[in-house]
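Re: beginner question about structure tokens

> Can someone show what the tokenized structure looks like for a real chain? I only ever see the sequence side.

Sure, here's an example I had lying around. Input first:
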Amino acid sequence: MSKNTFVKGAAILGAAGLIVKFLGAVFRLPLAGMIGATGMAYYSPAYYTYTVFVTIATSGIPVAISKMVSERITVGNYEEAHHVYRVSLKLLGAIGAVSFVVMFFGAGIIADLQNIEESKLPMMAVAPALLIVPVMAAYRGYFQGMQNMRPTAISQIIEQVFRVFFGLLLGFMLFRETIGEGFGDYSPGEKGAAGAAFGATIGALGGLAIIFFVYVMSRGAIQSRIDRHENNAPESGRDILRKILVIAVPITIGACITPIMNVIEAPVVVRGLSASGYEAEIAKNLYGQISGFVIPLINMPQVLTMALAMSLVPLISAAHKTRDMEALHFNTSLAMRIAVIIGLPCAAGMAILAEPILLLLFSSRWDEAVNIAPTFAVMAIGVLFVSLVQTVSGILQGVGKQNIPVVNMCIGIVIKIIVTYFLVSIPSINIMGAGIGTLVTYIVVAVLDVWATKKYTGTRFDIGLTFVRPFIATACMGAAAWFVYYVVFGGVQGHKIGCLTAIMVAVIVYAVMLFVTKSITPEELETIPGGSKLAKIGNKLRRR
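And the corresponding structure tokens:
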């Protein structure tokens, strides 16, 4: 594969990934406003459980498919490449069917284990998507192996657009009971959460329809290439299956860590709150405030750092394999700095304007937004450490140490469970304990990951350049945001214009201060897509 083909393919998938992640983060914001914290408490366990099953099917196996297909196409063995696709389609279809049976028919048991029995209906609503998404992943892996990234990108975007549109529509209509009046003795919150969850099934159908259509249209060209090339003795399906699993299993284990942590959080928080004396419904509502109001906002900056991590792997891997230590150290150091430059202002801005931001987005849920604002401020600090964890994980994958982030995250999960349960069980701390537990977890994981990066890449980080200068820029930004909202606009609770103005001023001040403090140079900006224009602006600011 040529460098241009690789860069083009990575750009297509990266752009699609950004759109998908953005839509996913945005989806939960209006949904939380519609069905409230209690409804989100029913929706979140269902969706997190679904995510675990989807991750098992789609994180490692499509990677294995694309790798094996690409290897066979490189040597002209198109028939064997298609054989890999057929075997993987059966494997993923079987995994999807088993996952559907477990989640649909075991929904009541899973909901009871999570201590939120009302999540049963949403689990049953989202379960049919498990019959579709794994099959779609087989097509995506096949096209990616042929270096055709467009079908994957288009299907991902269509899937997410359908999921967001129909999930919000059905969630609203079922919650308001404009449809589904005879839909059993379920509460509006349960029905609204189920409607939102079923959006994933409709989205999966849309994504599968698109990629299957592309496959049907490409079938003639695929068969023509198979017929034109002499093929070697075919591998057995068992050998192909074994090779797929050898590649996929380690990747899948690593990818499942975060979804499993999300699933575990619900029973830990609810049981901890119950132990501190809260009634079950209040405990579920408080958990819903975190999962519905806070987590979507915390996840939004991760869209950028995940894109950074994805682009890092091939760069770091190439430098590591060729022993180009200069390139390895440069890319590692630059990636760390970009992670800090992205994560630090997001953390500070959300912490300083925690309540105004929540009231801006959830004005219809005023009391719940005000109540969860202190927890949001604490968890917002963790954005910096999440940015570091995601970026450093990409670096460690690139140097062949992909197991280290997995081990460190497992350590983090144990810490999170212990700290969260202990703190939420204290009445005076209650739900704030969940925020502190998350923050402590990512601090520990970030420290372990950064230490491992220094050890295995040999990179020495310039503390002043990496942390001090961005911190100065962030401090100026934070002071400006605080002054605008709390002094200029008087800190009036729920002042939307004040909040938006403070955010705009903060963005401008931070951008200017990055160049003033020389946190990033124009030369480094030019290595980023579209950075040449920013570099020209930076040169003008630095000359003044």
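Each token stands for a local structural state, so reading them left to right follows the chain. Residues 462-544 form one domain.
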